[in-house]
Amino acid sequence: MDVQKLVVPLSAGGYATLTFPEPVTPERVRMLEEATALMLEALRDGALARQAEQAGAIEHDSWAVHA
User: Fold this and answer.
1) For 21-58, how does the pLDDT look when each residue is reduced to its tens digit (9 = 90+)?
2) How far is it, in rounded angstroms, from Cα 67 to Cα 60?
3) Which of 44, 43, 5 is closest to 23 using CA atoms?
4) Is there a contact between 8 and 18 (Cβ–Cβ < 8 Å)?
5) Cα torsion at 62, 64, 65, 67 (round to 10°)?
6) 47 alpha-carbon distance from chain centroid
7) Could you write out the DSSP letters of every residue in 12-44?
8) Which residue, of 1, 13, 18, 59, has the fewest CB within 10 Å?
9) How many helices (H) and strands (E) does the chain have?
10) What is the pTM (predicted TM-score) of this model?
11) Residue 1's closest CA among 32, 38, 39, 40?
């Protein structure tokens, strides 16, 4: 493929852009697919952990206020 830039529209607005330093081959697409899946999973897990921490802090604060 002769692709060097991929621009993906995001549902919340804005764009995510991925730039390739060299022409894309099927092997590079496979490697990118695996790396992207791992990266997105890590980001999602980190976001969920932060949400859980925030929810825990809110719950703790509600007990402290009414104690």
Assistant:
1) 788 888 888 888 898 888 888 887 776 666 666 666 66
2) 11
3) 5
4) yes
5) 110
6) 9
7) TSSEEEEE-SS---HHHHHHHHHHHHHHHHHHH
8) 13
9) 1, 2
10) 0.50
11) 32
Residue 7 to residues 15, 23, 48, 67, Cα–Cα distance (Å):
6, 16, 26, 52
State how far the alpha carbon of 54 is from the alpha carbons of 42, 58, 64, in Å.
18, 6, 15
- As a residue count, the chain comes to 67
Q: Give which of 34, 37, 32, 35 is closest to 19, Cα–Cα.
A: 32
How close are the terminal C-alpha atoms of the chain, in Å? 64
**Which distant-in-sequence residues (6+ apart) come within 8 Å of 51 by Cβ?**
none
Q: Give ∠ CA 25-28-34 in degrees, rounded to 5.
A: 145
